[in-house]
Amino acid sequence: MIRNEMSVQILVCLAAIFVTLAGSVWATETKTWPVTKCGVCHQNPGMRPGYIGKDGFYHDLHIDQQRFEQSTHYIMAGKYRCVDCHETGYDVFPHKEQEPMGCFGCHEDLKEKFLAIRASFQQSIHYDAEEVEFQCNTCHTVHYARKSRRMTLEEKKGMCTKCHDDRYNPTGLTLIRQHQWHPQAQLHLDKVACIACHTQPDQWEEPFTFKHRILAKDEASRLCDDCHSVGGKLADYLIDIGENPLQLDNTQLAGKFYVSGATRIPWLDNLGLLLLLATTIGVLGHGLVRMGTTLLRRK
Hints:
41% of the residues lie in helices and 3% in strands. It is mostly helical. It folds into two domains: 1-145, no CATH class; 148-284, no CATH class. It comes from Candidatus Kentrum sp. FW.
């Protein structure tokens, strides 16, 4: 069994080397290649080629067909074929790196919304990054992009952790170590998307815009009251919590999705603290009186 597995691995490696060498051999003599055969390479589970693009990011060239068929582009836009977006230059093998059709090639009607997103993003810490150049598809991978309400929590977190867990993690610390100041760090990392703390709502902006303005770590939410209070920011992030996000407004918040502290009454909190303090003083006072009377009896 082990020998067979090693043989398969060796064959895969040899195949990868062959494809790489073939690229240089055929650099001047390209072969006609039907675009319907893209999956022979790009959907082969045994070969996952990737490269660092001009934008500084790692690009995985393997396409997961199952995930692709769940994407917004596949379901709603009807982009079933590779050539729907990859229009020209792919009918030869090996093909050169080509720029696929841009967002506005299809989304001209959403241009105003995209421009608002870009204006918000230009205030993001990502906008000033020197090592990389951010574009829409840096986070919203075109082959797997889905509406926020349809995305799982792992997908949302993955847009951040795919970089900050590894290549762009200058501290070398795990996420839990970086957030160890939080008394419930693991719970929040497991149940809440990164943007819930690393962005800030703006009353003049829609959620789809201000959620693109990623804050520096020193500006991220650190106070419990930011979320766990009446009128806290959490109402803007309900679709970013848990595996089955809910789309609720403030009137539904208390009835269907209770957040600790979201319905707190300050004077009742203070009354409770006074009662607790009075009880503590009473217990300690009673104990001291008992100790004093016991000593007096012995004398």
